[in-house]
């Protein structure tokens, strides 16, 4: 399958693995890229730019295919040295960066000067248009369904993707709720040039996370995510667990008086405990509604091959077969 995204990124299949905190290590990024998609290392999971440089070098030993690095500009509890992270990316020979959170505008000159292709992940048409205007090469449009931060507009992909297609000139991928060939074909029909998946790629053999995380995703249904931190204008979709129930309760009790300090211990420093130790109730961790569509733990190669072959038969048999002959 050839789309504007496969052409732009030099990949075989229009499938991207979105940056994920404590999931997007070299092992996963390399496995996705070796399977013909675009694997992405999560920059800020590496505590220093030096560690990111090492992670990029590790991925390079595992694949000769293109890989990307995610740079997330979110309200974090400490401000990371972004220019040094960008230097590690450039010196590591990475040519694709996924930005997310705030606008990457301040860093565009450095990224573009180094010949890096920038995919900005955003949750609204207005932010996608801004990304196009400041010179991003593509956008990843994250609908309300997505795991992680869906923004504050609550527009699901059935509306958001065709709206993006109406307005954008640059290529875009559909993100949020994507799991299989049906997702890919639907996304293409709605105007996207490919898909970006988060939650689906956690439940793969190569994702270097505790087995408990993969099994929690397989066990979860589409009803099992919750939205937290709405009142802090930092909404996050997470998998329900007792810690998340507690956050929801605190948020309800505090109402408009809620501050991050009220829930800090339930949302900060949680990822290593969940992803490495498999302590599933340690706090809140991102997960998409798409968990309801995830029933197995395949290898990245099996997953991507399955998506591509089923997409082909969906298009050429099911859809083409519906046309009157
Ligand atoms: C556990 C987890 C951690 C994530 N961490 C990040 C992150 O650090 N930076 C980022 O830009 N997106 C992050 N995301 C969002 C994903 O890159 C992707 O946009 C999202 O998962 C797409 O929705 P889906 O889960 O329905 O596929 C995370 C998602 C998950 C599930």
From TrEMBL:
Any one GO MF annotation of this record: monooxygenase activity
Glycoprotein keyword on record: no
InterPro entries recorded: Aldolase_TIM, NMO
SUPFAM superfamilies: Inosine monophosphate dehydrogenase (IMPDH)
Coiled-coil spans in chain: none
EC number(s) from the headed UniProt entry: 1.13.12.-
Keywords: Flavoprotein, FMN, Monooxygenase, Oxidoreductase
Gene3D superfamilies documented for this protein: Aldolase class I
PANTHER family named in the record: 2-NITROPROPANE DIOXYGENASE, 2-NITROPROPANE DIOXYGENASE-LIKE PROTEIN
Name listed for the protein in its UniProt record: Nitronate monooxygenase family protein
Organism expressing this protein natively: Tistrella arctica
Organism lineage string: Bacteria, Pseudomonadati, Pseudomonadota, Alphaproteobacteria, Geminicoccales
